[in-house]
């Protein structure tokens, strides 16, 4: 396992290097000009002299290759630079906003675990029943509904009409309920369908049929044998889901004014804040690759039959 982890970490370094090149290139291919955006943000006249001065201050007058190498040297030292707009450390801004995004993601994961597991089990135990049909209909709606539209519906119902929950902010736990539920909705639908399908598939396998033939109760076969096997494939998708939740939080955070990375990146793109955009892309890439590595290791630990590349079989 040690050699496998070393190999994956080496591959991750190469991947992050390529991501850094792509991030640096893409932000400079964006329409608009960072110097003009900065002058507009401080309500200063956009003149040729002012643009030249700002470009010199931001280092944008240097050749692109020199800009990239200077930025990469700082990144290696865990310094993501300084924001064009706020003049604050990009690392500090990302750290603060990342904390809020992780809180939102963690609460969404709670919603997913609490709802998808019982719904998937209820639907999988009695396929074709009225309860199964109802759950399948709910999951269809949940998976097909855009998150921004669902967010506005929840705000309209629970905040504006019923006045049970606040619309925006992050001061109390109640501010977390609506955005986390919105972010979790499509994943609840996805995992409910996966659990249902896994239970139906495993209930038809020999070991489950043999257990029933020996006189074991259906619930005993389900909880002791079928469910653990049905949940195994889910662990392989957890890393991808958590990574996509982090990046997918952009829309939800802006709908509910949640002060996470999503709001930060939207304001950075609007202001052509290159260091913040580049830092955001790198952080998401690092988190995504680490989550996938962690899920691979977890699957290997939980399932001894799995063997890594290069190990004896």
Automatic annotation (TrEMBL):
**Keywords of this protein's UniProt record, alphabetized?**
Cell membrane, Membrane, Transmembrane, Transmembrane helix, Transport
Which CDD domains did the record assign? TM_PBP2
Query: ABC transmembrane type-1 domain: from which residue to which, for each copy?
Result: 98-299
The cross-references to SUPFAM superfamilies, in alphabetical order and at most eight, read: MetI-like
Asked if the keyword Membrane belongs to this entry, the reply reads: yes
The highest taxon in the source lineage is Bacteria
Q: Is the keyword Heme in the record?
A: no
Where this protein primarily resides, as one coarse class?
membrane
**Pfam families according to UniProt:** BPD_transp_1 (PF00528), BPD_transp_1_N (PF19300)
Give compartment(s): Cell membrane
What do the Gene Ontology cellular component annotations say? plasma membrane
Q: What InterPro entries would the database entry show? A: BPD_transp_1_N, MetI-like, MetI-like_sf
What is one Gene Ontology biological process annotated in the Swiss-Prot or TrEMBL record? Answer: transmembrane transport
**Residues annotated as transmembrane:** 12-30, 100-122, 134-160, 172-190, 234-257, 277-301
What is the membrane topology listed in the Swiss-Prot or TrEMBL record? Multi-pass membrane protein
The UniProt similarity line reads: Belongs to the binding-protein-dependent transport system permease family.
PANTHER family from the entry?
Answer: DIPEPTIDE TRANSPORT SYSTEM PERMEASE PROTEIN DPPB-RELATED (PTHR43163)
The identity of this protein, by name, is Nickel transport system permease protein NikB
Organism this protein belongs to: Enterocloster bolteae
Give the encoding gene's name.
nikB
């Amino acid at each position: 396992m040690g050699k496998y982890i070393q190999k994956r970490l080496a591959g991750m370094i190469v991947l992050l290097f390529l991501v850094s090149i792509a991030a640096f290139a893409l932000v400079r291919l964006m329409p608009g000009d960072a110097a003009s955006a900065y002058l507009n943000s401080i309500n200063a006249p956009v003149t040729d002299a002012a643009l030249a001065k700002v470009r010199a201050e931001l280092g944008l007058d240097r050749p692109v290759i020199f800009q990239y190498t200077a930025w990469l040297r700082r990144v290696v030292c865990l310094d993501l630079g300084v924001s064009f707009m706020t003049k604050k450390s990009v690392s500090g801004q990302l750290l603060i906003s990342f904390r809020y995004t992780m809180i939102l993601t963690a609460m969404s994961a709670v919603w997913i675990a609490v709802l998808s597991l019982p719904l998937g089990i209820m639907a999988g135990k009695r396929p074709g029943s009225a309860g199964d049909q109802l759950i399948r209909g709910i999951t269809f709606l949940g998976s097909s509904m855009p998150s921004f539209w669902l967010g506005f519906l929840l705000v309209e119902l629970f905040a504006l009409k019923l006045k049970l929950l606040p619309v925006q902010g992050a001061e109390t736990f109640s501010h977390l309920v609506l955005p986390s539920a919105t972010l979790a909705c499509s994943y609840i639908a996805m995992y409910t369908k996966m659990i249902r399908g896994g239970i139906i598939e495993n209930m038809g396998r020999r070991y489950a049929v043999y257990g029933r033939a020996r006189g074991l109760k259906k619930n005993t076969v389900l909880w002791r044998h079928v469910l653990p096997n049905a949940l195994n494939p889910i662990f392989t998708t957890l890393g991808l889901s958590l990574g996509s939740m982090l990046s997918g939080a952009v829309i939800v955070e802006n709908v509910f004014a949640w002060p996470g990375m999503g709001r930060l990146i939207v304001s950075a793109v609007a202001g052509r804040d290159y260091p913040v955009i580049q830092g955001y892309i790198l952080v998401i890439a690092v988190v995504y690759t680490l989550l996938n590595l962690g899920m691979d290791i977890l699957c290997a630990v939980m399932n001894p039959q799995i063997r890594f590349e290069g190990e004896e079989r």
